[in-house]
Design brief:
By secondary structure, the chain is α+β, with helices and mostly antiparallel strands. Helices cover 35% and strands 17% of the residues. The protein is elongated and about 75 Å long. Pfam families: Ribonuclease_P.
């Protein structure tokens, strides 16, 4: 996955937080059985060298585990967490296996109705009282 819109759409899917990363999974529903994955690591985690090292580790994990444990026709996103780079690779492997298992057991989220929006209702603009000129 490379488009920002795909990452934002995956954020509305199911999530499985783990100590080293957060796994997001969203079924696309387009009839294509291909599994896609994306990786993101923010600057909060560290400099470019650390972020790239973490992404390389996630790439290896995704290529190893997603073909067997992933959901067909879904987007999988791994978001790196602060302590993820220090974690042992075998521990990350076990955590991703556990996260994919958790995702598989959760029910599929029903599609959201776009007409129902969360948040505060729109405020009506205040009307200023009529004032005489020069006041």
């Amino acid at each position: 996955m490379v488009r920002r819109a795909d990452f934002l759409a995956a954020n509305r899917g199911r999530r499985a937080p783990m100590p080293g990363f957060v796994l997001l999974v969203r079924e696309r529903g387009d009839g294509d059985p291909a599994m896609r994955y994306g990786i993101t690591v923010t600057k909060k985690v560290g400099g470019a060298v650390i972020r790239n090292r973490m992404k390389r580790r996630f790439r290896v994990l995704a290529r190893e585990l997603l073909p067997t444990l992933g959901i067909a026709g879904a987007d999988h996103v791994l978001i790196g967490r602060d302590g993820g780079i220090e974690r042992d690779f075998s521990l990350l492997h076990a955590e991703l296996t556990k996260a994919l298992g958790k995702i598989m057991t959760r029910p599929i989220d029903p599609p959201r109705d776009p007409s129902r929006r969360k948040g505060k209702p729109q405020r009506q603009p205040r009307m200023e009282p009529n004032r005489a000129p020069g006041q």
